[in-house]
Specification:
The chain has 209 residues and is of the alpha/beta class. The chain has one domain: 3-Layer(aba) Sandwich (Uracil-DNA Glycosylase, subunit E), CATH 3.40.470. 45% of the residues lie in helices and 12% in strands. The protein is built from nine helices and six strands. The chain has a six-stranded mixed beta sheet, sandwiched between helices. α1 runs antiparallel to α4. The chain starts with a helix and ends in an 8-residue tail after the last helix.
C-alpha cells in the first residue's frame, strides 16, 4: 500500500514539473512539488519556494528548513518521516507573496497529494497556507489551536512560519510549544479515527414497530 502511495506521489511530482497552469514557472529553475513520506502522519504546508528551494527542487532547504528540522528534532521526528509542501509549486519572483490566482492554480496539486497521504495532521506554516482552512483568521490569535473535521478525521493545525520565528525570536517559544504538541495531536486523531470507523461499522438496528 505504501509503495502504491509513493508511486502516486511520484506521478504527481512529475506532472507538477511540467506544469504551466500559471505564470510562476517562467524564470524558475525547478518546480518544487514537495517531499517526504507517502504515509506521513503530519504534512507541513508552507507558502512558496525560495531561492534555495528553486535551485534544488526541494522545499524548506534554506535557513527556514534548518529551523524546521530543529523543531522536528524536539519531538524526535526526521523530515523524511513527514511530508513538506507549499501552496504554490514554483518560486514567486523576488520571493514575493503568492497571488490568489497562483494559489488557486496550484490548489489541485496539493489536494491530490493530501488525498494520497491522508495525514492525521495538516500543519500550516504561515498565513497563506492557513487561509486554506482558516479563512480570515489571524495567525497570532489561532496558532497552536487545532480544528478537527473531515472523513477520515483530520486535525488542521495553524503554526507560525519558520521564517517569521527567525525574524522575530520572540515567536520561538510559542513556535516550539506548538510543535511539541504534535505527537499528542496525532494520537488524538488516531483515536478519533478509530471511533469514527467503529461507528461506521456498527450495523443499524431496524425497528419492527
Amino acid at each position: 500500500m505504501s509503495e502504491d502511495a509513493a508511486a502516486r506521489l511520484q506521478d504527481i511530482a512529475e506532472r507538477v514539473r511540467l506544469c504551466q497552469e500559471c505564470g510562476l514557472y517562467q524564470g524558475t529553475t525547478n518546480a518544487v512539488p514537495g517531499s517526504g513520506s507517502a504515509t506521513a502522519d503530519i504534512v507541513f504546508i508552507g507558502e512558496g519556494p525560495g531561492f534555495h528551494e528553486d535551485r534544488l527542487g526541494l522545499p524548506f532547504v534554506g535557513r527556514s528548513g534548518d529551523y524546521l528540522e530543529y523543531l522536528l528534532g524536539l519531538i524526535d521526528v526526521h523530515r523524511d518521516d513527514v511530508f513538506i509542501a507549499n501552496v504554490v509549486k514554483h518560486r514567486p519572483p523576488d520571493n514575493r507573496d503568492p497571488r490568489a490566482d497562483e494559489i488557486f492554480a496550484c490548489k489541485h496539486w496539493l489536494d491530490e497529494q493530501l488525498d494520497v497521504i491522508r495525514p492525521a495532521v495538516i500543519a500550516t506554516l504561515g498565513r497563506f497556507s492557513m487561509a486554506r482552512y482558516f479563512p480570515d483568521a489571524r495567525i497570532s490569535r489561532i496558532h497552536g489551536k487545532p480544528r478537527f473535521g473531515g472523513s477520515p478525521v483530520t486535525a488542521w493545525y495553524p503554526l507560525f512560519h519558520p521564517a517569521a520565528a527567525l525574524r522575530n525570536p520572540g515567536l520561538r517559544r510559542d513556535m516550539e510549544a506548538d510543535i511539541r504538541r504534535l505527537p499528542d495531536l496525532v494520537a488524538e486523531v488516531r483515536q478519533r479515527r478509530a471511533q469514527q470507523q467503529a461507528a461506521d461499522e456498527t450495523p443499524t438496528q431496524l425497528s419492527l414497530f
